[in-house]
Amino acid sequence: MFQGELITDQVSPGEESLETGLFEIDEIPWDELAFPVVTHSLKLFIDNSAADAEILPVHSLTAIRHTDGRIDWEKR
User: Fold this and answer.
1) Residue 46 to residue 40: CA distance in whole angstroms
2) Phi and psi of 30, rounded to 5°?
3) What's the N-to-C CA distance of the chain in angstroms?
């Protein structure tokens, strides 16, 4: 994930996406996000943004997938 500023509010999917959208934080369709890493990354971004930091920290994570389907995240 990378942070940047949009110069227009028009977005469209690219080669690796079927859909794109812009949402307010309280309108994010969490159950519709395709990949667990996107959900986890967005939640980290929201938590860090709430701290009102000018520079957001870099996170490096390892996904641990369990046989029952659960995914845990380990910070490196």
Assistant:
1) 10
2) -50, -40
3) 16
CA 36 to CA 42: how far, in whole Å? 10
For residue range 10-49, list pLDDT tens digits in order: 899 989 888 899 999 999 999 999 888 889 889 888 888 8
In the predicted model, is pLDDT for residue 75 greater than 90? no
Measured distance CA(20)–CA(10) in Å, rounded? 10
Residue type, 11: V
Rounded distance between C-alpha atoms, residue 64 and residue 62, angstroms: 6
Report DSSP state, residue 25: G
Residue 67's pLDDT band, with cuts at 50, 70 and 90, is very high
DSSP letter for 18, please: S
Count of domains in the chain? 1
